[in-house]
Amino acid sequence: MTRQHAIHRAFGSRRRTQALRRATRRALREWLAADGVIWLHLFKTVTAGLLAMGIAMLLDLPQPRIAMTTVFVLMQPLSGMVFAKSVYRIIGTTVGMIAAVVLGGVFVQQPELYIAGLTCWIAACTAAAMRNRHFRWYAFVLAGYTAALIGVPLVQEPNGLFLAALGRGAEVAVGILCSGMVSAVIVPRQTGSLLERTLRTRYLDFTAFASGVLLGRLERGAFEGRFARLVDDVVGFEATRAFAFFEDPVMRSRSPLLGRLNGEFMDVCARLHALRQLLKRLGRDNDAIAPMASYFRELAAWLGERPRRGETDRDYALRLADALEAWQRTLPRHVRETRRPLEAEAPGALQDFDTSAELVWRFTSEIVRYSRTYASVTQPRLAQEPRTTRYVPRTSLYVVAFTFLRTVVVVATLGGFWIETDWPSGGMAVIAAALACALTSSAPHATRMAAQMAAGAACAAVTGYLYTCYVYPDIDGFPLLCATLAPVLALGAFLATRPRISGYGVGFSVFFCLLAGPDNVIAYTPDLLINNGIAIVTAMLLAALAFAVVFPPRMKWLVGHMCAELRRQVVIACRGDLAGLGQRFQSGTHDLMHQLRLLLNGDRRAHRRALRWMLVTLEVGHAVLDLRCEAQEAGWLSSRDARWDPALAQVQEDIARLFEQPDAQKVERALISVRAATGVAQEALDAVHEERERRHDVQRLLSHLHFIRSALLDRDAPTGALARRRSTRGPARVRASR
Q1: Which of 2, 330, 587, 655 has the highest count of CB atoms within 10 angstroms of its CB?
Q2: What is residue 717's DSSP assignment?
Q3: Count of C-beta atoms within a 10 Å radius of residue 35
Q4: Helices 161-185 + 64-74 axis angle, to 10
C-alpha cells in the first residue's frame, strides 16, 4: 500500500511538473508576443543608435549626433519597414541636399528671399507628402526639412554650404546602414511573416462574418462597425504589402498577386454589403426573400465551416472554393424551380427575387475567386503574375492645399521673426518648425501631436542640460558614454511605441540627440543649449496653435468637401473609362473613407454620417459598374431597341449629378430615369423570352437597375432620407396651390 501510494505521489508530482512547464512555456510565448516584442525593439533601436554614433565618431564626421538622430527617426519593429524607410530616406536626403545648395546659391546674402524660398520648398514637400502616403510620404517630408537642417545654420556662410551638405549626407547614410543592419541581423521580424498571419486571420474572420450576415445575426450598428474595420484592413494590408516589397525577393515576386488579392477582397466585401442591404430592405419574411432562405442557410453553412485538424490554409481555402463552386453549379436549376410558383402566386415579387438570386450568384463567384487567389498566395512557387490591378490612394486636394498653407504660416512666421529680431536661436526655431510640420502632416490629430512633441522637447532640453553639465564631464571613453546614454535613449524609444503618447517619445528622442547628442569634441555651452531648447519648444507650440486655428483639419467645411470627394467616386463610376475602373473605384472609396475615419475619430455622429455615405457610395457605384459591364456584354440590345442607349446614358448622368450635389429633386430625377430604363429593358425581356442567353442578359440588367432603385430608396441611406423629405413636402405644396 505504501509503495502504491509512493508511485501515485511520484506520478502526480511528474504531472504537476509537466503542467508547470507547459504553463511556463505558454506564458513565455504570450510575453514574447506582447511585451517581448517591445523590449526587443527597444534593444535594437538603442543598439543601432549607439553603433551609428560610434561609427560616425570613428570616421570623424562633423556631427555624429545626426547619425544617431537618423536611427531614432528610422527604426521600426519590422525589418521591411526599416528597409522601405531607408530607401525613401536616401532619396529624400539627396533631394534635400540639392535643394539646400540651390537655395543657398540663388539667394546668397539675401536672407529674406532665402527664407521665402525655403518656406515654399518645405510647404510644397509637406503638401506632396500628404498626396503620396505610406513611406513615399517620408521621402517628401525629408526632402523638405533636410534643406532646412543643412541650409539654415549656414545661411550667412554660403561658402561652407556644399561641405555641410556632403557631411550631412554621410551622417544620414551611416544611420541608415546601421538601422538596416541591426534590424536584419538581430532577431529579425519579417514583414512577410506578419503578412501571412494577416492574410490567414482576415480570411477566417471574413468567412465567419459573412456567415453571420447571411444568417441575419448582426444588427445594423454591429455590421457598420465591422464593415468600417474592413476598410482599415484594406488600407493597412496595402501598406504592409509595400513594406514587404523591400524586404524579400519572394515577397517582391508575389506583390502583384497580393495586390490582386486585396482587390478581390474589396470586391467580395462590396458584394456582401450589397446582399446584406437588400436583405435588410426587403425583410426576410418578404415574398421574394422567403423562398431564398434555404440558399442563404446553405451558403452560410459552407462559409461557417472552420479548418479541420491538421488542414493547411491552402487546403482549407481550396476545399471551400470547390464546395462553393459545386453548390453554385446547381444553383440556377434550383432557383428556376423555386421561381415557378412565384410566377403564378406573386408575380410582383419576381424582380426582388431575381435581384437577390443574382446577388447570391455574384457573391459566391467573388468568394470563390478570392479563396482561390488566397490559396495561390500560400504556394511555395508561383508563376509570374502580370500587374493587372493597382491600388490607387486618394487624398483630397483640399487637405493637400490646407497642409501647404499651414506650413507656410508656421515657417514664414518664425523665419520673419528671426530675420527682424536677429534672434540667436531663430535658426533652430525654423528647423524645429519644419520638423513639426513635416512629422505631424499625416497625424490625424496634428495639434495634439505637436503639443506632445513640445513637451517631449522640453524634457529633452532639461535632460540634455543635466548631461552636458554633470554627466559628460565625468565620463571617459566610448563604453561609458554608451552606458550613460542607453537609459535615456531607451525611454524615448519606449514612449514612441505607445500610440496615444508617441509624440512625447518622438520629441524627446529627436531633440535630445539634436540638442545634447555627443560629438567628437563636445562643446560645453549650456546657455546655447537652453536657448535652443526654448526656441524648439516655442516653435512646437506655435505649430500646435496654427494647427488648431489656421485651417484645423476637423472644420466642417473641410469634412464636407472630403465627403463630397467620397461621393464623387460614384461620378467616376458613371463617367469613367471602364478599363480598370473597378479597381480605381474600390481603392479610392476605401482610401477616402479610411482618411475620414481617422479624421472623425471621437465624433460619433459625424463618423456615422460619413460611413453611411460610404456604404451607399459602394452600393450604387458597384451596381453602376455592373450595369455598364453587362450593357457592354449585351450590345445586341442597343441595335434591337434604339431607346436603350439613351435611357442607360440618362441613368448614368442623373446618378452622377445626384452624387455630385445631392438633393431631393435629383433623387427623384434619378429614380425616374431608372424607372424609364427598367421599362425599356422589361419590354426587351418580353420580346426575347424564348431566347435563353438574351433573356438572361436582360434579367441581369433588370436586377442591377432594381438594386440601384432600392439602394437610393433605402430608409437608412442619406439618399433615402432625401427621397422621404421630397415625398412629405409634395402634398403640402399641392394643398397650398389649391
Answers
A1: 655
A2: S
A3: 10
A4: 50
Q: What number of residues does the chain have?
A: 738
Q: How far is CA 385 from the centre of its chain?
A: 24
The Cα 304–Cα 254 span in angstroms is 29
Which residue type is seen at 500? R
**How far from 34 is each of 29, 128, 548, CA to CA, in Å?**
9, 36, 35
Number of H helices, E strands in the chain: 27, 0
Give the start-to-end residue ranges of the domains of the chain. 1-31, 34-189+396-549, 191-246+248-377, 570-737
Question: Is-contact 51 67, C-beta < 8 A?
Answer: no
Cell numbers placing 594: 479610411
Residues 147/100, Cβ–Cβ less than 8 Å: yes
DSSP per-residue letters across 31-66: HHHTHHHHHHHHHHHHHHHHHHHHHHHHTT-S-HHH
CATH code of domain 191-246+248-377: 1.20.58
| Per-residue confidence band for 35, with pLDDT thresholds at 50, 70 and 90 | low
pLDDT grade for 641, boundaries at 50, 70 and 90: confident
The CA-atom distances, in angstroms, between 65 and each of 62, 82, 523 are 9, 19, 13
Cα distance between residue 595 and residue 661, in whole Å: 21
Nearest Cα to Cα of residue 320 among 373, 275, 273, 380: 373
Residue 636's Cα: distance from chain center in Å?
A: 42
635: helix, coil or strand?
A: coil
| Cell reading at 334 | 434550383
Distance CA(418)–CA(414), nearest Å, equals 6
- Residue 480: phi and psi, rounded to 5, are -65, -35
